[in-house]
Design goal:
Elements: E1 11-15, H1 20-31, E2 35-40, H2 43-52, E3 59-63, H3 69-83, E4 88-91, H4 106-134, E5 137-141, H5 154-174, E6 180-185, H6 192-197, H7 201-208, H8 220-233, E7 237-239, H9 243-249, H10 254-274, H11 282-291
Parallel strand pairs: 1-2, 1-4, 2-3, 4-5, 5-6, 6-7
Helix pairs in contact: 1-8, 3-4, 4-5, 7-10
Length: 296
């Protein structure tokens, strides 16, 4: 049985599990035998996901904001009380905003950093004691944005570069304890967030002008399958799209390539971008706004 269910007897925590990558990764880990602890802001959606998991083990959910450090510590304790152990933690919760930096309010910009970067650190801090006990695995979801920061997504790119650096640093601190740390990279993947970005005309047009394969939107299922396989291997780096592995080898040149692309296209797109309000993208962004209204 265990050969067919590599996570049999193990508990996996997934943040941002109400939709998108988090929901589908929870399903993939459940099908591999893991008990699932789902964490996020959308209580009704978390309940739906937990009830629908068809794996061999149980699932439960906790309505928690990853930016609230004390709440995350309480949630980590409750997960341990419920399941007895925590073996895998996936810091997936994230939001994005698209638009010109000078037209983005400080509250929106800061919220992206809070959820993506501070939320990832809060997740690691809350669950690290349990991972030390289990000699477990922590996967931080980053992005192509960590390798090739793009115009009109300054907060998102900054946050993803930050979580990548955070995970690499944490790996060096805890490796001798037997805890493995991984970083997951995704290009544009078919989620609510990316579909929300498609509603921002200037970003949509800029993406359409990106060279192959960077401008394409990729299906969610294969990307999540690769993430789940990486969790199973306790991999240092996991790539939702295989070509991202090659991008690592040329990452030093990518900012210059992006800057050249921006100089070429932003003069035309800037007036269109200037007329678009900068808000959190997609259904997840709407849920975050509803859960914690931003100042105007």
């Amino acid at each position: 049985m265990r050969g067919n269910l590599p996570f049999h007897g193990q508990t996996a925590v997934v943040t941002g599990a109400a939709r998108g990558v988090g929901e589908h990764l929870a399903r993939a880990l459940s099908e591999r035998g893991a008990r699932l602890a789902l964490v996020g802001l959308e209580e009704a959606e978390l309940a739906r996901v937990a009830a629908s998991l068809t794996g061999a083990a149980e699932a439960a959910y906790w309505h928690t904001d990853v930016t609230d450090a004390e709440a995350m510590i309480r949630t980590a304790r409750r997960v341990e009380e419920r399941f007895g152990t925590v073996d895998v933690v996936v810091a997936n919760a994230g939001v994005a905003a698209a638009g010109l930096f000078r037209h983005c309010t400080p509250d929106v910009w800061r919220r992206v950093i809070e959820v993506n970067l501070i939320g990832g650190a809060n997740t690691a801090h809350a669950f690290l004691p349990a991972l030390l006990n289990s000699r477990g695995y922590y996967l931080q979801i980053a992005s192509l944005a960590a390798l090739a920061p793009a115009p009109m997504m300054t907060a998102y790119c900054a946050s993803k570069a930050g979580v990548e650096a955070f995970a690499h640093t944490l790996r060096a601190e805890v490796a001798h304890h037997g805890v493995r740390i991984g970083v997951g990279y995704l290009s544009w993947t078919d989620t609510d967030m990316v579909r929300g970005g498609e509603q921002v005309a200037a970003l949509r047009e800029l993406r359409a002008r990106l060279p192959w394969p960077a401008g394409r939107t990729y299906p969610l299922g294969p990307a999540v399958d690769r993430l789940a396989a990486g969790v199973e291997r306790r991999a240092r780096h996991v790539y939702g799209q295989p070509w991202l592995r090659a991008a690592q080898f040329v990452r030093g040149a990518l900012p210059a390539v992006v800057a050249r692309h921006g100089r070429q296209h932003m003069p035309e797109l800037e007036p269109q971008a200037a007329g678009t309000p900068v808000t959190l993208l997609g259904a997840g962004g709407a849920a975050d706004r509803a859960g914690r209204p931003l100042a105007s």
